[in-house]
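From the methods appendix. Each design record in this collection lists the tokenized structure first, followed by the designed amino acid sequence. Records were kept in a plain field format so they could be parsed without special tools. The example shown here is representative of the layout used throughout.

RECORD:
FOLD TOKENS (164 positions):
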């Protein structure tokens, strides 16, 4: 029987922003890979409507300050990549908890990409008092990922998965 994880996306004050369940695919020394699906349609300001049945392949690195999701249409075709800038997760036998630092990147199948929620990051940085080391690490990670996105836009979307 496959192990089921509860994934908790948390604010820096540790309150849960979102929570969902996924099936375990694999774990190695660097990461854990999960798969889940949207049980109901969700409307997202930048992604539009994510249909019920959309597949979410999720990777959580133990030491990196981001995680990423590959969203696939229910037919299996690539919908988009979604990258969260976050603190490294805390992983237990049944739970993955991570602190979402607000900034996200979307990459579309044609290689176009966009950075989201910088304003939310700046507002929450003040409201929640993000430590300067955390804010600096989030912005450094964003810069690293944006450099990667420029490379992907030149080399093609197929290079993205191997780079993340």
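DESIGN:
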């Amino acid at each position: 029987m496959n192990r089921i994880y509860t994934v908790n996306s948390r604010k820096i004050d540790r309150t849960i922003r979102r929570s969902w369940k996924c099936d375990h695919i694999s774990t190695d020394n660097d990461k854990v890979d999960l798969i889940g699906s949207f049980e109901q349609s969700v409307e997202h300001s930048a992604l539009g409507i994510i249909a019920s049945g959309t597949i979410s392949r999720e990777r959580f690195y133990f030491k990196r300050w981001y995680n990423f999701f590959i969203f696939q249409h229910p037919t299996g075709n690539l919908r988009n990549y979604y990258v969260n800038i976050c603190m490294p997760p805390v992983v237990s036998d049944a739970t993955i908890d991570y602190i979402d630092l607000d900034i996200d990147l979307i990459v579309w199948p044609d290689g176009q990409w966009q950075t989201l929620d910088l304003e939310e990051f700046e507002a929450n940085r003040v409201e929640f008092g993000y430590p300067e080391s955390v804010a600096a690490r989030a912005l450094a990670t964003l810069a690293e990922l944006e450099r990667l996105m420029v490379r992907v836009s030149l080399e093609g979307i197929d290079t993205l998965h191997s780079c993340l």
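APPENDIX NOTE: The chain has three helices and eleven strands.
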